[in-house]
Amino acid sequence: MVSLFSQVRENKVEDPEDKRIAAVVLAAGKGTRMRSSLPKVLHALLGRPLVLYALEAAREASQAKPVLVLGSGAEQIQQIVGDAAEIVLQEPQLGTGHAVAQAAHTLKGRVDHVLVTPADMPLLRGETLRKVVQAHLSDNAKALSGLGGDAAAVITLLTVRSNRARGFGRIRRDQGGRIQAIVEEAEASPADLTLEELNASVYCFNAAWLWEALPRIRVSTAGEYYLTDLIELAVGDGYTVQTLQIEDESEAIGINNRIHLAEAESFLRQRINETWMLAGVTVVDPRYTTIEPGVTIGQDTVIWPNTYLRGSTTIGEACEVGPNCIITDTRIGRECRIVLSVLEKAVLEDRVHVGPFAHLRAGAHLADGVHMGNFGEIKNSHLGPGTKMGHFSYVGDATIGAGVNIGAGTITCNYDGERKHPTEIGDGAFIGSDTLLVAPVRVGEGASTGAGAVVTRNVPPNTLAVGMPARAIRKKEKRDQS
Q: Is the pTM above the cut of 0.70?
């Protein structure tokens, strides 16, 4: 059997300003029940990998860069995590006790207390982890001052009361209510299985005791070292084990399969939607509205059903979005109206109206007061203030001035089979229905094209061009430009 402390990788974490607390996040499991080639902790929950939720909460609780213990899929996970954590490898994977032991070389002698939390419980709030830490530090402070007795709690752990065990170990207490052990489900007796107080797999340890106690864990019949065995060791050493009960049972949802993933997403979606509603946003039907964690929304905005707000999308005040919109990494100003449309990496300034059935692709920028009609598509183009784009039109790689009218069926023919080419349309131009603008081409200020024109040459300012190919036939009178 491999020693508990064998094959430890020498890693040194940056010295945090507060050396008292370090967080260790456990992410070394194989996650075989996910039935996936992707490591379990990289599965997305509302657009973010599970592991990033765990790291964010751990950092919030400890105010320092967490230590992330990896095993299966380590390279993939490290690419996603980047410098958000200090990486420690567990190889081979011999249980949770063995996983924490791998952090010894990184943390021993540097911190006074160690918070341990799993990477597959993404609903755990940083606030909840802070409460565990605060309860642990408070108990230790009382013990040092003589107010809490001689035996400080070397372990403070998080528990949850539920009639759904979810595979968690049961908390066994004596007649006086003092915790005696955590019994893993596989080893629980029929009496243990009736217990409804469960171990939520979050612990805060006295660091010096932890490093001394870990080698004393006995190997299980499954050939693993269980971190939960430290409870009995602490009690046997004469220490108390303190517990803190979780307030929101949903925080204890662990992800072991895709059913759990869907369950967690439902709770997280509800949590996010309620947060925005309390902040002054109307979510008409929260059951059918998805808002990812990186989204921001202004007050008095209304979100209609079947709307998905994703990535780093920002929405200003007093907008209406939906129904049936998918908006990703897009910046939207005030008083905009978007219905039945798809927007990705676009910018909308104030008072913009889009849709229904519009598609704004990367680089689309609609200035103040732009109107984009039904079944239109814009890509990598700027539409100036007050411009109106009719339905069934495509604008790509174009710069369009202010107050332009783009008739229905207009297309910028920006691709010649090898390269993309730009189209420019000056302020106040009028583009007739079914115009084809064969780039590179420029339509001058105040110019017009006739219906069905195929524009292959520049149209001078204040000029009417018609035909196929289009030809300039006359200068426009002032009344034509009104």
A: yes
